[in-house]
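Kindly review these C-alpha cells for lecture notes.

. . .
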Amino acid sequence: MSFNTFGHAFRFTTWGESHGPAIGAVVDGCPPGLPLSEADIQPFLDARRPGQSRFTTQRQEPDAVKILSGVFEGQDGIQRTTGTPISLMIENVDQRSKDYGDVAKAYRPGHADYAYDAKYGFRDYRGGGRSSARETASRVAAGAVARAVIPEVQILAWVSAIGGDAIDMANFDAAEIGRNPFFCPDAQAAARWEALVDQARKSGSSLGAVVECVATGVPAGWGAPLYAKLDAELAHAMMGINAVKGVEIGDGFAAAANTGEGNADPMRPGNDGPLFTANHAGGIAGGISTGQPVTVRVAFKPTSSILTPMPTITREGEATELFTKGRHDPCVGIRGVPVVEAMMALVLADQKLLHRAQTGR
C-alpha cells in the first residue's frame, strides 16, 4: 500500500494496523532544538483515547506514546528535537480479533472492505486494518509534534452538531468544551445529545456529526496561490480522516447563496496591518492566509459499524446479511475533534516551514 505519508517540508508517515501489536508515526522535517517529550504529546492522545464514556467505543486502550528517536536531552536537562526523524509508537493492548470472524466472509456495507478487496485482492478484516479509525491516534501524536513548530498558533475544535441537532452559537462557551464528553461548547446542546446518542447506541445504530476548528495566530502569508493553496491543503488533510465526507472553509457552501458585497471581507486601516470587519473566507484568500482566524468545518458520516443487520454480499458474491460485532463509536465524530485539531496543526507547521524556505521569513 502506497501513500502513507502526508506533508512537504514537515512530513509524517503512519504505520501499523488496528489489531497489530502497535501503531505509530515517523515525523520527518521537524526543526532541531524544539522542546519535546512524551508529556507534550500524551494530553492530545488522552483527549482522543477510547473508552472514556458510554458515548464512545468501549475498547480500552491507554494510548501511551513512546518516543523512539529524534530527541536528545541536553546539558540543560530539557529533551529537544535533534532534526532527525522522530519515531513515535503506541502499543495496542485491547484487541478482540474474534469479533471480526463474520467480516472475514462478507463485506460490511459503508466500510472499505469491498473497495480494499477490489484493489488489492487481500485485506486485513480485523477491525479494518489500516482503514480503521485506530490509525488516527498516530496522526494525533504527529500533530502534537507539529504544535511545537507553531507555538504562535492556538488551535481549538469542537462538535457543532450531532445527528442534525446543532449548537446555538449564542450559548458558545469555550470552557464548556472540556466539561462534557461531546467536546461541545453549548451546555444545553450537550444535554440534548446525551439522550440522542444514547438512543442510537441502544438501538444498535449510529449518528453523524459536524466538527468545527479555528486556528488563531496564523500570520498573513502562509500558503501559495496555485497548487499548494492553504485551503486546498486543509481540505486534503481533513478529507483524509476516516469517516469524513465533507469539508468547508470559512462560510463554505453558504457562500454560494451570498452576494459579492455580502461575501466580501471588508478592510479598514489598523495599527498593525488591515483590520477586517468580517471573515467569510475563513482566514484564507487566494490560497494564502490573511492573518485572520483560519476556520474549517468537517462533516463525519455515521459510524458504519452498527448492530442493525444490513444486506450485503460474501466474498464469493452471494447475498447475505451482516451486522458488526465488537465495540464501536455510536458517533465517530465525537473523537474526531482531536484528530481535526491534529491535521490543522500538521498542515500549518508544513506551511510555516515552506513559507520560511521560500521567503526567508
